[in-house]
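[Meeting: bench + compute handoff]

Bench side (C.D.) handed over the final construct sequence. Compute side (W.E.) agreed to return the predicted structure before the next meeting so the bench team could plan truncations. Sequence as handed over:
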Amino acid sequence: MADASGTRPAIDAAAVDGLRTEVLDWRHQAVPASRHGLTAEAFASGGSALADLQTPLLTLDSGALTHNLDLLAGWCRDRGVLLAPHGKTTMAPALWRAQLDRGAWGITLANPAQLRVGRHVGVQTLMLANSLTDPQAIRWVAGEVASGARIVSWVDDVRTVERIDAVLGAAGIANDGADVELELIVELGGAGGRTGARSVEAALEVARAVGASRHGRLAGVGGYEGSLAHTADDAGLAAVRQYLTALRSLHERLLAEGAYPGDALVTAGGSAYFDDVVGILGPCATGRGSSGGAAGPRVDVVLRSGAYVIHDDGFYRGISPFSRQGPARHDPDGEDAFRSAMHVWARVVSAPEPGLAILDAGKRDLPVDEGLPVPQLIGPELGAPMRPLTGARITAVNDQHCYLVTDPDTTDGIELRPGDVVRLGLSHPCTAMDKWTLVPVIDDADRPEDAVVVDTVRTFF
């Protein structure tokens, strides 16, 4: 439905607000039995303290979320690039709304099931960072496009273009009497990477196939540099920059051929190398005031960073452009760096031998794929005053347990006892959020004795 200005809102605010009326019960593992029967809104009204909850528990920090949202939105605005945050990190409509409210162009998602969540809450502009090959998904996306949504998807193979044409040719889906066209971005990859045409020449062939197709329209070029590197050392950065230079070359070749039938998007950028993306691809943008015409199509550069909104105390803390060490880099704990908004609170359930404590959080509760959790604070109870836990480490994680090892020479005489609570720093928000259907947002994770629940984030993985 259009608003008073005649345009459709970026997301259906009423649908997102409606999630707050959900009644909480046994299905929400973050909510103790004493809070069952409350709505999410009542639970988040400030009447529930951290001390009222139970372990294991994942929380988000309100101040860190706001800081991260504002920081990247402003950074993109200052550089004239668009942001389509990768929503698969959180699968949380409330956070998508916060990103869109700060000017995000749209929301990026990874598969058709995630697209359905986005459309259910009324996200109007979506990017599918993947190829459409499933016939049901192709037909569904075409139907959504025919109804007025904008869904831009990727393609890296001439055979995929032919498949889309065949499926939609048989389906007969039309838009105002004309054949529906899907906006397709040609994806460039690289040797050893994930998806994407493996050379500029191969990508040009795909683009030409899109141009000749009945149901496709060339919308730009893109890809993901993060699949080609996982470090910020010289070798990693060189691989990223070489790839981005090739992506820019692909775009320039298509411009020279007049291959774009309208405005174009050039898109790359996760949360690890977005500075290089803007440095190399930024000059492709023609400026927001451009409307194409005789001088060529309007071109926008679109970042797709997703992990930044939650950030972490592990992989992204080390690799983010805002926190890498070295010349012209930022203080990783400074005002111009992202802040980790997520923590797991875990309780000691066993201290079976000296120097070993077993916590009640495991792989089902916290991420381990980008590094083990890091012990940060310890206290006698959840919501009690806590002090730093130095000289301790997590050595192994089972499905439901962590092994916390301490060294009496470096842990300042701390003896862990059953019932003690440890705050853990985490690595990789994507595989933290998918373990929780509802995540309490507290006002200050660094002052647990005063922390209260001020919001909740509902996820749909």
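W.E. noted at the follow-up: Confidence is low (pLDDT under 50) at residues 289-293, 326-330. C.D. will use this when planning the next construct.
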